[in-house]
Amino acid sequence: MAIMHLMSFLNDPSKTNYAEGNIKCALSTLSHSDSVEAQRMAASAFARVTLESQRVVDPETMESILFLLEAKDSNIQCDALTALFCLTYEEDMNDNKDLVVKLGGLKPIIQMISANDSAADSTAQMYAAGCMANLASHAKNAPMIATPEVLGMLAGLAQVTEPKLQLHAANALCSLAKDPKSLKALVDANVVPVMIKLLDSPYPQVQSVYATAIGFLALHDDCRDILAESGAKVVSALVGLLNSNSAKQRCEAALALNAKAANPVHQIAIVCNGGLAPLLRMMQSLLEAEVLASLQCLETISGLPYNKTAILETGILKHLMKLMDPPTHHKIRNRALVVINSLVKGAEQQTLISLYNSGLIDRILAEALMAPGTLQAEMMGIVSLFTDNDKLRPKLLRDNVLSTAIALLESPSYNVQLVCAWIISVLAIKSDTNTGPTTPATKSRPFVKAWDSLRVVFVQIFRGAERTLQHLTLKTISRLLNAGNIELTKLILHSTTIGSAIAYLIESSRTRPATLSPQISANESDIDRGQVLDEALILHDLIKTMRTVISGPKVP
User: How much is the pTM?
Assistant: First the structure.
């Protein structure tokens, strides 16, 4: 009867659910039969139906498959392993992976991996290794799999000449490297050096998996000493993988290098081993994941002065600027800006001047007004790094930096407002650096031209509630008054709206606390109400004193 039910099921393609009803009972009966032929029929059916339809099964169905693993017939074992592999392959089959372990499936799988006495055993070993890799991909199973016995077996399997066995072992070890507890077991079992060694595997897929695994290992303190001992070898191997024909492999290598680059020595090693050229090629890929992986690695290695120079000499900046263009995906634009920010931050003066001369500022200003708020903050954050340089500040004033920053002070993004207020305040600093035939009057002329716009925005800030913006604006006005430009000084001193707004700010600071932007918390504000009040009183007294010396008609 069981055979009849099974044949009926197999002959009807519309029937796919083998885990319920008569077919479930039939498969269970045949699996547990004393007849080898009946078991062969059940195992073959399981292999066939699971290849066609993967589903979460109940304990009874899984137990039938596991029972067949104990059969003496290698064909039965291979078919049962095929079914087990299919039922545990996909990520959404974690319930099946749980069942295998709960029902004791690890033991027969381990036995089959360890046996290699014949060609039949070799086939079973292949399937068993694949099942082990699938089971290890479920974090819940990792502690049960990461035992000295299994890890030693996987380490041995990882070094055989058969590429599929190497790959299954690599996948299992890589999955275990994701879990902190099983990762410690990998270290204790001395498996990590084997994984490093196999970065040189002759099989590209295996190399790719170990590149991913090294990325996980590099994130954990337990592995850092081991990786440091093999630092040059690991970096060299990963840089080599950046030149792979496989985009997936290139991405995994770049991300692994990014994790390794937490160590400054490895940051330099990536550059010295020729990593910049393939990273540049990856930046120009049509695949978003590949571009993002290369940018992430570049961001990490671009902090060191030596690397900054090397990156600029490679021509990477030109391509980073191309990635700022609007047609580019938002994530890529943002990441490219983050890399540029890292290049500019802490750059030596000559490097900073080279960056300025590249046209970077012009490119940013051309895009900033129309860019989304998150990108505006990154763009103007880069500009702000240039304003700290005394030699470049007058040049920036002659560019459109001031007008762009003023326009973006009215952005709905608090972060954009803040960085633009900072830029304006720094540009207002009186520079003592001799940058050419300029006078206080000519240096401050852009502020004279922009005063009407500045005045309107300054008044809005004073009548608003953002303490940090208010503090920066007060500092800016004080600096402008000390800039030495008589025309600008008169505009400020005799502005009725500015005077009224400062008076309002003083009164409101005394009587009620300013509320913070909903985008920041009280803990994130560096400026308290008392600091704003003190700065406002200082500016009020300065204006009052200067008015007695510099007369002029009242202006708006």
Answer: 0.72
